[in-house]
């Protein structure tokens, strides 16, 4: 097998590692490409290509994350990871861990860890690498990695997200939610929302977003019901999985992406609604609509005619 063939075979795994460390599709893709360039030009013949490439992409991702954290500290409004609607990596033996680890709630928890803690947790607890491989990847001793893993697990356990265990029930509830969303059905929405539901939006100062979270079933249902009529004839919700949780892509009538919406479901109710509107985080999904112009158009439709 050639190096190119080996790399192509492992590319989904490398992207999966990088995305969980970085929370960014574009940065993960760049990290994977840089990994290939280093492998292609390296004279090393590794005993395990998988371990070697996983170590390289992890080190690159750690370096990128360290600089990204500085930018995120100055980010305008809530920061959410770039939405992942197509996960190239799958492992039937670890499917539950993989799905949970890539949820928006889990990625936001990972943001609280140091870059090294995050990398160790991803390699060890998500992908099941042994401590010798983890230590080589992050260039620390095995003892140090075990301590990093303990701290990371403690932080993750303290805030561990919970989701509806039954996938079919979760999907059915989400389908009812998005249908009520389209119809602007206040009563239907209220029935599906948890009492303390909250909705948040990531615009990054580059797209119209909520100034602060909206909390409570009555307030959230009224907000959605007021918003829904403005979309009719102008935009459409396209249900899909977002980071292995229920969600939808909001598209303008010409097919361009306006936003990505994801929901967390627990105990038969919608617990959290998140919307990514920052155009920089949507470009990997295709052409992006100008959300500011759409907002102006929607507001114009609300004004009474002469």
Strand sequence of the main sheet, in spatial order? 2-1-6-5-4-3
**What do we call the CATH homologous superfamily of the largest domain?**
PhyR, sigma-like (SL) domain
Beginning-to-end CA distance, first to last residue:
72 Å
Query: Into which percent range does the helicity of residues fall?
Result: 40-55%
Can you walk through the features of this model?
This protein is of the alpha+beta class. The protein folds into 2 domains: 3-158, Butyryl-CoA Dehydrogenase, subunit A, domain 3 (Up-down Bundle), CATH 1.20.140; 167-302, Nuclear Transport Factor 2, Chain: A (Roll). Helix content is 54%, strand content 15%. It contains 12 helices and 6 strands. It has a 6-stranded mixed β-sheet. Strand 3 and strand 4 form a beta hairpin. Helix 2 packs across helix 3 (49-73) and helix 3 (49-73) crosses helix 7. It starts with a helix and ends with a helix.
What's the layout of helices and strands?
Layout: H1 3-22, H2 25-41, H3 49-73, H4 95-101, H5 104-110, H6 115-126, H7 131-138, H8 142-158, H9 167-183, H10 186-192, E1 193-202, E2 214-215, H11 217-231, E3 235-242, E4 245-252, E5 257-266, E6 269-276, H12 291-302
Parallel strand pairs: 1-6
Antiparallel strand pairs: 1-2, 3-4, 4-5, 5-6
Helix pairs in contact: 1-2, 1-3, 2-3, 3-7, 6-7, 6-8, 7-8, 9-10, 10-11
């Amino acid at each position: 097998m050639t190096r190119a063939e080996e790399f192509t075979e492992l590319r989904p795994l490398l992207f999966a590692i990088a995305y969980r460390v970085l929370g960014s599709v574009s940065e993960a893709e760049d990290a994977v490409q840089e990994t290939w360039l280093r492998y292609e030009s390296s004279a090393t013949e590794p005993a395990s290509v998988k371990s070697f490439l996983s170590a390289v992409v992890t080190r690159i991702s750690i370096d990128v994350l360290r600089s990204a954290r500085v930018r995120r500290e100055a980010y305008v409004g809530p920061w959410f990871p770039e939405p992942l609607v197509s996960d190239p990596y799958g492992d039937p033996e670890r499917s539950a861990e993989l799905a949970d680890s890539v949820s928006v709630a889990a990625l936001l928890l990972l943001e609280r860890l140091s870059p090294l803690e995050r990398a160790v947790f991803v390699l060890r607890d998500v992908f099941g690498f042994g401590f010798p491989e983890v230590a080589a990847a992050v260039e620390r001793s095995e003892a140090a990695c075990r301590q990093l893993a303990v701290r990371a697990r403690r932080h993750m356990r303290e805030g561990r997200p919970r989701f509806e265990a039954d996938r079919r029930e979760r999907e059915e509830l989400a389908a009812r939610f998005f249908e009520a969303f389209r119809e602007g059905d206040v009563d239907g929405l209220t029935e599906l929302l948890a009492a303390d539901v909250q909705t948040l939006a990531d615009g990054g100062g580059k797209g119209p977003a909520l100034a602060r979270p909206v909390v409570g079933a009555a307030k959230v249902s009224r907000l959605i019901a007021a918003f829904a009529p403005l979309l009719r004839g102008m935009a459409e919700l396209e249900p899909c999985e977002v980071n292995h949780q229920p969600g939808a892509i909001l598209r303008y009538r010409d097919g361009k992406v306006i936003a990505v919406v994801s929901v967390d479901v627990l105990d038969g109710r919608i617990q959290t609604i998140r919307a990514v509107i920052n155009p920089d985080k949507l470009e990997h999904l295709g052409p992006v609509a100008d959300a500011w112009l759409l907002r102006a158009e929607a507001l114009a439709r609300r004004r009474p005619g002469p």
